[in-house]
Amino acid sequence: MTSRTPRDSRLRLVPHRPMAAARRGVAHRGPARPAPRPPEGTPPPSELARQARAELAGAVRVARWAAADDGARGTLTGPAAERAAAALGTAPDRVRADWDRARLVGLVELHGGTTRPGWRLRAWDRDDSAVLRGWVALLDAWSLARPAPPEAEAAAVAEVVEAVPQLLSLLQLSAGPVQLAILLDLLEQRVAELRTERCEVPYGALRPAAVETVAAPDAAAATAGPAAGTGPGAGTGPSAPGPDTGIPLAALLDWALDALAAVGALVVGDGAEGRREAVLTPLGNWAVWVKLEQICVAAQSPAGNIEQPAADMLRGCAGLTPGPARAEYRAWLAARPVASAVTELLDVARGDDALLRGLAFEALRVVGAPAEPAVRSVTEEPWLRPYALLWLAELEGGDPDDALGVLTREEATWLWVDTAAAVADHGESPLLVRHLESAVQGTVPALLAEVRAVGHPRTVQVLVALAAAHPDPVLAKAVRRAAFQVHTGGS
Predict the structure, then answer these.
(1) Which DSSP string corresponds to 228-277?
(2) Angle, CA 371 vertex, CA 88 and CA 293 arms, to 5°
(3) Which of 91, 140, 265, 329 is most solvent-facing, going by the fewest CB within 10 Å?
């Protein structure tokens, strides 16, 4: 005989994976694609890692110094920079630049006002893949390597940052030096396309008629020979400023190439007949090839989300298991500037769909350290705070299974309701019942009391769905009662 006495049912605590319960079954993806071979002449990974270690040697030195110095702080200014410069035998300005690199690469992690070694620093001497991923993180943050010209409009700088992946693709596909005049021509085309897409006034005539270059829509055009109409000594040309740019677009191209050279991605020099040209370094060539391969894989996959906005891409990945989903995220990110991709993902996370909110932060995990400033900036937004705190805890080396400890009881309960909303909207009833077991509360009555108090806007819908799905009639009745109390404002 079944007792009608309300039960103090114990909840089994399980490792916290917020989006695991919301994912649907495994989608059939067909046979695995053979691993692509890098371009002929690409050094082996061990050699690429050696080059990356050489490029980041200064950042590693200052990171190791900071790990042993109790006074190191996030910005490494003042006395700390002087101490580091004296200890390392270099100038304070160089120390500060290396410190910024160490933070971007993930060699150091900031915890409040203190600094500690990042997991990548601990793996630096033994893990080539960690080194290469660290250098790619620096490449993704290339626009921070050199400050943009102060007279340039912010909108123009953003357009150039968004256009640079296309320039890098041209350099990689050309498999050799490309004249700066050709890169400028492609940059002008891309910026004009961006403005047309936004229905803004196009650049129009960006350069005097006396200076002409051949358009280079693909790699073949880039390698077809000297550009028509360019005399000896021609570089990027004296381009005139376009609307709202503040300075000639050629100056912004020079800034971008200088920043990319500073991180070790390319080299700029004089070519045939004195024309200025750029060529990717082996590291830069490999990194751009990897990103292009990711795009090709995504374009050939059943999901094919690369051209979709973030919300549609995440919906397309909702039915994938974590591994294939991460591959889709990587391809989608490779086709976009990091800053704009992170902004787009966070905008989706602010929406009403709880599943997309969780998946957006899964995609941000693929971005890694370059997304840290943007994620930290949303920790005061109630809808995003629990996800952002978990993301930061994992970035700082925390075990994902233990990361829930960084949340307060109220934040953990809010996250439980939000994840339950994703399960209710996109999953099946048994998943919602199993999700009950992941709550931090030890009993169902305690969970219901705290769920009522947390004030999540989806509380009523979640409790109604849970009551309808749960096989225990007594527990279901208690959950329905709680839903009614929330709905009517009762206690």
Answers:
(1) TT--TT--S--PPP-TTTSS-HHHHHHHHHHHHHHTTSEEEEE-GGG-EE
(2) 100
(3) 91
Sequence letter at residue 14: V
**92 exposed, middle or buried (CB, 10 Å; 0-12, 13-18, 19+)?**
middle
Gap between the Cα atoms of 452 and 443, Å rounded: 14
Give the pLDDT band (50/70/90) at residue 28. very low
Distance CA 169, CA 217 (A): 11
Per DSSP, the chain holds a count of helices (H) and strands (E) of 22, 5
Fill in the amino acid letter for 343: T
Q: Tell me the residue type at 311.
A: A
pLDDT of residue 245: 53
- pLDDT for the residue 117: 79
At 282 the three-state DSSP class reads helix
Name the CA radius of gyration of the chain, rounded.
26
380-426 pLDDT, tens digit each: 898 899 999 999 888 876 666 566 677 888 888 888 888 888 887 77
Angle at 275 between CA 170 and CA 157, to 5 degrees: 50
DSSP string covering 143-154: GGTSPPPTTS-H
User: What single letter denotes the amino acid at residue 359?
Assistant: L
Rounded to whole angstroms, the Cα distance separating 90 from 65 reads: 13
What is the edge-to-edge ordering of all strands in the sheet holding 276-280?
178-179, 276-280, 266-270
Percent of the chain with pLDDT over 90: 19
Whole-structure pTM value: 0.58
Q: Which residues, at least 6 apart from 195, have a Cβ–Cβ distance to it below 8 Å?
A: 159, 201, 202, 203
Beta strands in 359-463 (DSSP E): none
Q: H-helix or E-strand containing 117?
A: strand 114-117
Rounded Cα–Cα distance for residues 290 and 331 (Å): 10
Residues sharing a CB contact under 8 Å with residue 265, sequence separation 6 or more, in sequence order: 139, 142, 168, 280, 281, 283, 284, 287
Alpha carbon distance 228, 364 (integer Å) = 44
Integer distance in angstroms from the first to the last C-alpha of the chain?
31
Please tell me the distance from the alpha carbon of residue 134 to that of residue 73, in angstroms, as a whole number. 21
- Give the residue carrying structure tokens 């290396």: 98
Which of 439-444's residues contact partners 24+ apart within 8 Å by CB, and which partners? 439/11, 439/413, 440/13, 440/404, 440/409, 440/412, 440/413, 440/416, 441/11, 441/413, 442/10, 442/11, 442/13, 443/8, 443/9, 443/10, 443/11, 444/7, 444/8, 444/9, 444/11, 444/475, 444/478, 444/479
The helix/strand/coil state of 216 is: coil
Residue 260: name the closest of 340, 178, 321, 320 by CA: 178
Q: In angstroms, rounded to a whole number, what is the distance separating the alpha carbons of residues 225 and 379?
A: 52
